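in:
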């Protein structure tokens, strides 16, 4: 019991340090802020979902105490959204829901909530949704440009070399929903993987099934084919719906491709230091797209032999 309380306090301290660091440096938010659900998942694994909920609520109280103002919650909506992600994932985890299902359901619920909040904000401000969308897109571009400028020690310029900022902003505005859902999916998947591995290393039980058995639902292939057909429709709005859908599905098949690579690492007995180096490389271009193709090919080639009958 005492050890559970210690873990709870350590996780609360980590959340507080991450929140403060994110306020000081936008780059810290992009690198560390995405791990906000991790302490919540760890506490859920160690002490149950009620302890995880208490941790999230305590973090919210601390945020308000650091800046006791009415607009504090609105200004830190991204951080609170990630805390909520951890709570929802922990709830599914405690009910024995499989990791792929839990992530899909969590991302779907949070995406719907984000859309409702966006429409509610537009209504409260008396703005048309498309006008508010332009403002949000401009804010995102400014934040990313600032982070890239800080990281490079100077001005970042256009986010895509050779493409005017106005064109990038127009494209981002039309793909913002797909990018948001894809980002939520990737963040949820990353935190679930890290939480399971961390709890295993701490000796809190072995997760079953292992994450290298990750498999996207088979019916999603029909959604992928549908998105491909939408790209062929000679209507701009329909094509962008297909492209947004492809962005979301790409994350799921990227996770499946990484599971294939993890299986190979496991079978080859690759030392953990080499795995720590290898996995981040999977997120780099063009390896990222190769992993997505690998995840798609696994549907038919069954690289991990998950669906082959065992020999008697």
């Amino acid at each position: 019991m005492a050890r559970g309380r210690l873990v709870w306090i350590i996780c609360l301290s980590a959340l507080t340090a991450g929140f403060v660091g994110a306020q000081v440096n936008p780059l810290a938010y992009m690198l560390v802020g995405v791990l906000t659900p991790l302490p919540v998942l760890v506490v859920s694994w160690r002490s149950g979902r009620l302890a995880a909920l208490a941790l999230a609520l305590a973090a919210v109280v601390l945020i308000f105490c650091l800046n006791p103002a009415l607009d504090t919650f609105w200004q830190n909506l991204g951080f609170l959204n990630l805390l909520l992600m951890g709570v929802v994932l922990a709830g599914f985890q405690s009910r024995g829901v499989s990791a792929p299902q839990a992530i899909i359901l969590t991302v779907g619920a949070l995406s719907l909530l984000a859309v409702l909040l966006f429409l509610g904000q537009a209504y409260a401000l008396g703005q048309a949704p498309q006008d508010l969308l332009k403002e949000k897109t401009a804010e995102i571009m400014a934040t990313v440009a600032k982070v890239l400028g800080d990281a490079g020690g100077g001005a970042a310029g256009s986010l895509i070399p050779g493409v005017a900022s106005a064109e990038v902003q127009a494209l981002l505005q039309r793909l913002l929903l797909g990018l948001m859902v894809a980002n939520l999916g990737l963040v949820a998947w990353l935190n679930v993987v890290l939480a399971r591995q961390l709890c295993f290393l701490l000796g809190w039980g072995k997760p079953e099934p292992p994450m290298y058995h990750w498999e996207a639902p088979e019916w999603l292939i029909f959604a992928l084919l549908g998105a491909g057909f939408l790209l062929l429709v000679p209507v701009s709005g329909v094509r962008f719906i297909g492209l947004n859908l492809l962005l979301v599905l790409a994350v799921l098949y990227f996770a499946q491709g990484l599971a294939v690579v993890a299986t190979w690492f496991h079978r080859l007995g690759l030392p953990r230091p080499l795995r720590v180096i290898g996995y981040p490389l999977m997120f780099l271009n063009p390896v990222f797209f190769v992993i997505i193709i690998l995840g798609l090919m696994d549907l038919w080639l069954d690289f991990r032999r998950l669906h082959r009958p065992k020999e008697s």
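note: The CA atoms of residues 3 and 211 lie 26 Å apart.
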